[in-house]
Amino acid sequence: QLQLVESGGGLVQPGGSLRLSCAASGFTLDYYTISWFRQGPGKEREGVSCISRVDDSTYYQDSVKGRFTISRDSPKNTVYLQMNSLLPEDTAVYYCAASLGAYYCEGFVNYEYNYWGQGTQVTVTS
Prior knowledge:
Layout: E1 3-7, E2 10-12, E3 18-25, E4 33-39, E5 46-51, E6 58-60, E7 68-73, E8 78-83, E9 92-99, E10 115-116, E11 120-124
Parallel strand pairs: 2-11
Antiparallel strand pairs: 1-3, 3-8, 4-5, 4-9, 5-6, 7-8, 9-10, 9-11
């Protein structure tokens, strides 16, 4: 079965950290540009971060720069989103998505994605 599965979400206090995982089954993530999106309560979905299929170059939304890090672990066929210094406004359902047609991250929010994960909830609260 071809699918993406996210994990690693949870409840954390402001200033805390979480590492989200996006694992693929049935296909190889190295061939795809991978992006993380999130949708907070009452908000529209927004692009958070992206990693290119060509050279692993990355992109971050301004609000997460310096706090989040996206990375690829090829042997594990998994992409991670390390989230540090979490803020209450980071509370959202986080989704990973894989695009075969996208080579780089410029304009990643507008790409066509072949696969989406089911989402993992991140809640930042004291």
